[in-house]
Amino acid sequence: MKVVAGSASLGLGEKVARELGFDFVRPHVERFPDGELYVRIDDDLDDEVLLIQTTHPNKKIIELFLLQDALREMGVKRIITVVPYFGYSRQDKIFRPGEAISARVMARHIGMNSDYFIGMDLHSENVLQWFDIPTMHLHATKPIAEWLKSKGVDMVISPDKGGYKRARYVANEMDVEFDYLEKTRLSGTEVIIKPKNLDADGKTVGIVDDIISTGGTIARAAEQLREQGAKRIYAVCTHGLFIGRAMENMKRVNDFAATDTIESVHSKITVASVIAKAIGKLSSMQ
Ligand code: R5P
User: Fold this and answer.
1) H-type alpha helices, 53-190
2) Which domain holds residue 177?
3) Catalytic: 183?
4) What is the sign, positive or negative, of the torsion defined by CA atoms of 81, 87, 88, 90?
5) I need a surface site. Which of 8, 15, 48, 200 has the fewest CB within 10 A?
6) Is the overall model pTM greater than 0.85, yes or no?
7) Number of structural domains in the chain
């Protein structure tokens, strides 16, 4: 099997290929003068290909669809599509009449030219129900726990109830205390976090979230934890979008990190071993 990575996941794809001892294929991706994308894969491929591409920002989604089509045209029989960060996953239901279920649209289109889907710390597992191919949901629990351990974190916090499970797994992995804050979203950029009776006094706290977007959630959580006497605060997420005032908001914590599901200077943690292990298991099951 060879590993093909789209331009959003070149670093991660190369690491996964190295861990698995597979050849790495970097497709040729170009833009026409009108902005439309062009992809070409020059390497010979086997019957089975591992295709890795994060679907963010929008242009990377089109690139994924084109790569899947190119693989099919080249005669690849089994495409395992890994989407490290699944864009549009937060719109996974109708919040107001007239809306689209964007996550479902994405799932259906990704599944069209794919034989197996692998997602990583999906905002909601709902997404998986919209694939009519086998799926696997991976978690960045271990590498995130290792990073927090290296910072001496002795308490893990989820900034909201929705992320309760994810953060609890990290806390269990580290064998430290766990709790969550209660968050209410006022708008796309504003959240308030209601006080909760946490015993953060004197603690080194790690805030774990699936996504850091504007960083508003982390900033509010950090303020709350400081008020409660936290000594040091670290923030970590699987998917680091870091948009708008994110860098300003990140000043509220002692340090922060994201994984390489979205590749950036903040990707201090890699999920390559998580993906490689899953592929190893999948191959041995066949
Ligand atoms: C929302 O439910 C997610 O789990 C994250 O908490 C959210 O996307 C973070 O957004 P922001 O960084 O803009 O507060």
Assistant:
1) 58-73, 102-112, 141-150, 164-174
2) 141-269
3) yes
4) positive
5) 48
6) yes
7) 2
